[in-house]
Amino acid sequence: MAVPQNKQELLDAIRTTYQRLAADLASVPPERAHEATLEGHAQGTQMSVSDLVAYLIGWNLLVLKWCDGKAKGLPVDFPETGYKWNELGRLAQKFYADHAGVAYADLLRQFADVHGRIVALVERETDASLYDLLWYEKYTQGR
Fold first, then answer.
1. Tag placement on the chain: N or C end, fewer CB within 10 Å?
2. Cα Rg of the chain (Å, integer)
3. Minimal CA–CA distance to 56: which of 129, 110, 16?
4. 38 phi, psi to nearest 5 deg
5. Res. 42 pLDDT band, cuts 50 70 90
6. Using H for helix, E for strand and C for coil, what is the string for 83-119?
7. CB 49 within 8 A of CB 38
8. What is the DSSP letter of 2?
9. In degrees rounded to 5, what are phi and psi of residue 35?
10. How far apart (Å, rounded) are the C-alpha atoms in residues 27 and 8?
11. Per residue in 111-140, pLDDT tens?
12. How are the residues of the chain apportioned to helix, strand and coil, as percentages rounded to the nearest 5?
């Protein structure tokens, strides 16, 4: 998939990717969702489908946190307070832990909710605010 170049392409990419992923996730039997059968985000680790959903929720919540902080003119710790860009595996482990023990159906509902919040955030923006201004280092907000 090409990198979106405007608001509509970004919304289309977000919605399409979410719909495909949500369909795949819905096909996972809840009793198997916590089995660590996937390669984890940190080298040499394994994760479950539930961990993957927790990871996606975590990143979406971070994006919302970044955007809220920036909108309020507050300094934002990228990628997250206490983590550096070269520690994303450790951050993934935090996301897994944040949602450990949550029922798979509840994780899917949380993922749907945060997806809706991301779509609403993008819908409030303009092409110019998403793609014409630098937002973080050399990146625009839409990127």
1. N
2. 16
3. 110
4. -110, 155
5. confident
6. ECHHHHHHHHHHHHHHCCCCCHHHHHHHHHHHHHHHH
7. yes
8. P
9. -80, 130
10. 29
11. 999 999 999 999 999 999 999 988 888 988
12. 60, 10, 30
C-alpha–C-alpha distance, residues 8 and 4, integer Å: 8
C-alpha angle with apex 93: 66 to 19, nearest 5 degrees? 65
Chain centroid to Cα 16, Å, comes to 15
pLDDT in tens, 50-92: 999 999 999 999 999 999 999 999 999 999 999 999 999 999 9
Q: Where are the beta strands (DSSP E) in the chain?
A: 38-39, 46-47, 134-136, 139-140
Give the amino acid at 136.
Answer: Y
**Virtual torsion, Cα 104, 105, 109, 110, nearest 10 deg:** -20
- Per-position b or e across 58-80, b if 16+ CB within 10 A of its CB: bbbbbeeebbeeeeeeeebeeeb
DSSP 50: H
Which residue in 21, 49, 22, 54 sits closest to 36, CA to CA? 49
Q: And the tokens for 52?
A: 């993957």
CB 114 within 8 A of CB 60: yes
Amino acid identity for residue 12 in this structure:
D
